[in-house]
Amino acid sequence: MGIVYIVYDHEHHSAYAAKTFQDEIFALSPVIAHRFTQEALSWLNLDIHQNVTTAQFVETIEGKPYLFLEYVSGGDISRWIGTTRLTEDLPQVLRFAIHFCDGMTHVVSKGIKAHRDIKPQNCLITEDGTLKVTDFGLAKVFDDAGLTDTETPDAESLSISLSRTGIAAGTPTHMAPEQFDDAKWVDVRADIYSFGVMLYQMLTGRLPFVGRTWQQFQQLHKTQLPPPLGSQHSTLKTVIETCLAKKAAHRFADFSALREELAGIYEVLTGETAPEPVRGAELSALDWSNKGASLSRLGHSEEAIACHDRALEINPRDAEAWTNRGTALDSQGRSEEAIACFHRALEINPRLAETWSNKGIALRSLGRSEEAIECYERALEINPSLAETLINKGIALGSLGRSEESIACYDRALEINPRDTQAWVNKGATLRKLGRAEEAIACFDCALELNPRDGMAWINKGGALRRLGRSEEAIACFDRSLDINPRDERAWINKAAALDSLGRSEEEIACYDRALEINPRLAGAWYDKGVALGILGRSEEEIVCYDRALEINPRDENAWGNKGNALSRLGRSEEAIACHDRALEVKPRDERAWINKAAALVRLGRPEEATACCDRALEINPHYAEAWYNKGTTFGNSGRIPDALTCFEEAHRLGFPQATQAIARCRQLLDRR
Predict the structure, then answer these.
(1) Can you tell me the distance from the alpha carbon of 70 to that of 44, in angstroms, rounded to the nearest whole number?
(2) Cβ atoms within 10 A of the Cβ of 164, count?
(3) Residues 93, 239: contact at Cβ < 8 Å?
């Protein structure tokens, strides 16, 4: 699943191992990203221990999360297996084994039920000969969420296989018998079994069980005893037999008990005191702050805030911790509290460009765009090369209708980083609002060339194509977005709108249904679904949709108006009038609502009230042709033919097509007189 880069931080002069998932693996299933997040969380929560590879922080780069780990330069213990460094040095084997037990005792104390993939490749060795447990890819996946049959990717590439009772996961050369049945329910004793296999390897240079297929390994681990050790390793015979017991209950209960046994053997063998158990180190203010920032990036803002609080207990003048705490608060929508944190950070150090930028984001979320722009400008004075700040400034300018300035910000961001997909997408969206759809599409294409899995770029490109009347191409774009994320409600809604423009109402309604399955609180989707049902003449269902929209937003005058019209079509004119009145409470100068109310009053035989409604519409808009026509209709129904003719003639002058026939009828009636 994973790929690891060795990287160097020139500012802090530190090397890291940066782990992420492979693109082709991620493409198999959207749950892969969730599993990576679970791995990152489990690793971050292990904090610092001499015998565990430390997770330093998490960053997102070009849309992909990366977990940055301490770089262990000595390789893994598989390079030692089969060499005299182990097979002829039993004290060294015991030292590594004790290191491993200390690391795993710490891991379990931090809430990890089982590692599930203990093997030599997951035990790194430092230059000074310290063993560090690594790779917690399977540790939290099963504890927190598990895998389902439908989520399981290719078994060979992931060492995952479905069994009759559950999901087996791990590396079959080292798996405990019960892990072949269901990895979710195993505990630390399965890791003790895997460690027993590895200890046997360290002593002998070979595996205790050798198979060629998953099924062969399963049979061997469940039924066979390991080959006996040579006499030179007899002191460890009982330890290995206990570790490799077929029943979990017959193994060591935990790694502390195993360590105690190993320490005793070490002391007898060497005549030296065994190393004292190693405890995890206390985190510094910087450690707490980095951990909090990483948790925040993984969406765990409450835990992140607690970490920043710990950092600030240690050092109340840690400006970075105040900044990170503010960022976590802002992600929860607690923008006022976030701004207070940014203010504290800037009191300590007013030259923090990132803090000014983050303060701007919080102000923008409160609708205070002018103040936000001032903060972005302060950040850019300190560091003009902050592409993300330029993007955020562009967003704030766009919200104020200053679109050309907004585009200039995106252009500056793209000068700094031409591969910034967000800048391309935002520039395209702004151009689309300006009616420059062709230019917008070119921007979205640039974003998609950089990242073909950018769902928002596909949605925005589809929107621009729809504006150009190219609805079929637009639908293809929305489908591409839905291939990436089938639960993106925006893609379903946009696809529905494109289908509407093609008159494909049934498919349109199905798209609204998918969006509403994902988020039933989408008032606009309920409204638009109602409109589509109305076109199909399904008025009862239409009314239900408007009711759902009005539960969410009782002040939606359009939903009240459309509900009134649907009720009118069903002959429920009194209820229709009540709906039009509700629309007029929200928007008294809605000329359309006055006309709709007038039409319902006409059906009830209340022409004088209907005429008054038409007059109200014409006060608002004297050039409203339909209002003149409807007023003429009310006069005609009352027998006031000359007045009706005057109204119809005005409607005709304003271009209302039905007025021609009405004028002819009036003149015919007047001629008969």
Answers:
(1) 12
(2) 6
(3) no
Domain 2-72 class? alpha beta
**Domain 77-270: which topology?**
Transferase(Phosphotransferase); domain 1 (1.10.510)
Bridge-based pairing of strands 131-133 and 160-162 is unpaired
Q: What's the CA gap between 118 and 198, in Å, rounded?
A: 8
The CATH class that applies to domain 614-673 reads mainly alpha
What's the Cα-to-Cα distance from 161 to each of 164, 188, 211, 612, rounded to whole Å? Answer: 10, 21, 16, 75
Residue 129 tokens, joined: 């000969």
Task: Name the residue with tokens 């193994």.
Answer: 251
Start-to-end CA distance of the chain, whole Å, equals 91
- Tokens linked to 168: 């087996």
Mean pLDDT value of segment 180-185: 81
pTM of the model: 0.75
pLDDT for 160: 42
Q: Decide: helix, strand or coil at residue 376.
A: helix
Q: Is 487 helix (H, G, I), strand (E, B) or coil?
A: coil
| The pair of three-digit structure tokens given for residue 536, joined into one six-digit string | 């199909």
| Residue partners of 280: CB distance under 8 A and separation at least 6 | 47, 48, 49, 106
Q: Identify the sign of the CA torsion 548, 553, 559, 561.
A: positive
Separation between Cα atoms, residue 581 and residue 570, nearest integer Å = 18
Tokens of 645: 């003719």
CA–CA separation, 322 vs 314, rounded Å? 12
Class of domain 282-333: mainly alpha
Give residue for tokens 């949605």: 459
CA distance 244 to 251: 7
Q: What is the DSSP letter of 359?
A: H
> What is the mean predicted confidence (pLDDT) over 626-642?
93
Instruction: Please report, to the nearest 10 degrees, the dihedral formed by the alpha carbons of residues 316, 322, 325, 329 taken in order.
Output: 120
- Which of 29-38, 107-116, 373-382, 482-491 is the least confident region? 29-38
Give the mean model confidence (pLDDT) for residues 607-613: 94
Chain region(s) in the chain for CATH 1.25.40.10: 282-333, 614-673
Cβ neighbours of 117 (radius 10 Å): 22
Bridge partners of residue 65, in order along the sequence:
60
CB neighbours of 336 closer than 8 A, spacing ≥ 6? 366
